[in-house]
Amino acid sequence: KITASKDIRQAFLSYFEQKGHKVVPSSSLVPADDPSLLFTNAGMVQFKQVFLGEEKRDYKRAATCQKCVRAGGKHNDLENVGYTARHHTFFEMLGNFSFGDYFKEGAIRYAWDFLTNIIGLPKEKLWITVFEDDDEARELWHKVAGVPKDRIVGLGEKDNFWAMGDTGPCGPCSEILIDQGEEVGCGSPDCRVGCDCDRFLELWNLVFMQFFRDESGELHPLPRPSIDTGMGLERIAAVCQGKLNNFDSDLFEGIIRAIEDLSNQKYGRSPEIDVAMRVIADHGRASAFLIADGVIPSNEGRGFVLRRIIRRAARYGRTLGLSEPFMARVCDRVVEEMKDAYPELVSAKSSMRQILDTEEERFLKTLDFGLEILMEELDTLRKKGEGIIPGSFAFKLYDTYGFPIDIVQDVAKEQGFEIDREGFERELEAQRKRSKGASKEVVTKELPPKYQELVEQGRGGEFIGYETLEAKATLL
Ligand code: ATP
Ligand code: MG
Ligand code: MG
Ligand code: MG
């Protein structure tokens, strides 16, 4: 039986290779030639031009294990990390792709065969969602995979219709979920497939790219429909290992052990410590992989997301009683754990150390003072019987002490407060207008020479836009 994450990764790629797929390496977390996208957030990103028909490859089927980051931009899971059992900022997405070759039936057959026969998941615990109008998919799941009709659930556009952008290829999707049992759920009497809690854990998304949406919003059938799928390795690994939380899988074991050693604390004894350890483990992986792909902390774009990730981890370090920079040591462990699958981590190790130490040292100078002021403010609010942190105060913390909003959000959550986020955004926008034209912070000169070279070669990539206006707001 396959249980170790490295065996699952391997089994997935071999399975699809045997089924005529070309195994393609993961692309960088910094999307090539796509300055509008913050990070690679799914397996299909490196194949975008192929799906659009603008690029031809000498294969029609591909399989990958793709590095993904979902922090900032359209898909932002940063604030979920630590609190749900299934979200990371950095994760690995297993995917198989058909470029105008097999379609719904093939995709369903492969996914079901892989999960039930290769991995050996219990069929009776698996649920299927389809787009509510997609009778074809509903029929196929029943016919091809033998899933009983009452475990095939139709959901609306928000959950089960996928689009590359406002125009372009799009289509219904279908997901495979595993029921982890009532104990895992939110406890609401309305908890069912589609609920946002961890009970019906979404494992695999199969996207049936079959339409082209034109400027007027009209859907036209694609002459050669395609398949794009994605399954999170951390989720399937946890399930295979009988764990109800991704962070309890073997992918995180060594990293959490390292954090235990660093902090002299134990994992699994108090929720507060566990959340901190999970966040640090996750953010350690994200930092290591982002730096290895040429991202450096800065005040905008990709670098700002990395800065937020490092600072959020640094604040959780305080929860564990860590008072010195520690992320470099967490990343050392990440490199050890992941270097077989991702050898690029090894050559980035010394840059990682220098970048993280510099970044943390700089932030630690203001962190304690900022936290003190935040706690005083919460005291005052509490005495006044108020439960909302004013946006202007959150902005002051950002502006004076370099607190990204997620840190204030985390503390607010712990202390039972909410934040006036709109007020915060308003202040931020006003400041942006004031400082327009002011010089940008230059950080490259502090970099180790080898790393500077990397950035100069353009590996760090330049981020010039946002996918949507909404994305722009959530990035802050
Ligand atoms: P969820 O509803 O759980 O947030 P999603 O619908 O946003 O997931 P998709 O965009 O369909 O996820 O991505 C395909 C697969 O990638 C998911 O089915 C899941 O296995 C995995 N995945 C998505 N987001 C994350 C994440 N933040 N961390 C780990 N795995 C993820
Ligand atoms: Mg999601
Ligand atoms: Mg989902
Ligand atoms: Mg999904």
From TrEMBL:
Keyword Ribonucleoprotein belongs to the record: no
Top EC class of this enzyme: ligase
Gene Ontology molecular function: any one: zinc ion binding
Keyword set includes RNA-binding: yes
Key words of the record: Aminoacyl-tRNA synthetase, ATP-binding, Coiled coil, Cytoplasm, Ligase, Metal-binding, Nucleotide-binding, Protein biosynthesis, RNA-binding, tRNA-binding, Zinc
Domain Alanyl-transfer RNA synthetases family profile: 3-476
Cellular component terms (Gene Ontology): cytosol
UniProt remark on cofactor binding: Binds 1 zinc ion per subunit.
Cofactor names: Zn(2+)
Subcellular location: Cytoplasm
Superkingdom field: Bacteria
Domain note: Consists of three domains; the N-terminal catalytic domain, the editing domain and the C-terminal C-Ala domain. The editing domain removes incorrectly charged amino acids, while the C-Ala domain, along with tRNA(Ala), serves as a bridge to cooperatively bring together the editing and aminoacylation centers thus stimulating deacylation of misacylated tRNAs.
Family per record: Belongs to the class-II aminoacyl-tRNA synthetase family.
Stated name of the protein: Alanine--tRNA ligase
Native source organism of the sequence: Dissulfuribacter thermophilus
Classification lineage: Bacteria, Pseudomonadati, Thermodesulfobacteriota, Dissulfuribacteria, Dissulfuribacterales
Gene, per the UniProt record: alaS
